[in-house]
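pinned: reference chain
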Amino acid sequence: MKKQRSNPNSFSRLEKQKAIDALLWKNFEARNEGVFYKLFQKQGKGDFVIQKANTPEGMYNFYSIWVRRKNYSNMKYEHIREISKDDDPLYHWEEIRGLFSSFDGELLRYILHAKIPLEKFIRYELASRGFDEDHNWCGFEKAKKIWLT
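pinned: its structure tokens
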């Protein structure tokens, strides 16, 4: 049975990358709410916690950590290995890994061999749902212009 994290916004000092991953996902999810989150670390290289960006510096002896990364275009295999080994994976990584782990191996090899553009398939699927980048209904024609151009 998978152990559950008591506070999904709190990470040990050994989980810095996981805390950054959680922060990026949390800010993506909150993009329409006008809320922005930051990563804070307890003084003395302690635990990490995700709080709203307007949390004052030094509150509860935590200090903000600057997170530079905006995307995963330079993700390394070591990061993927750490995600795969995690006993308590973040929701989005568990879902993304699940997509690929359930694929037939020959299909995965064919996708790589034939250089099938997965991004185009994703864009086509999103266009066919009729929502914009912020998941607001915009209609199918506008969604096509957003996702397919």
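why pinned: The longest strand covers residues 37-42. The chain has six helices and four strands.
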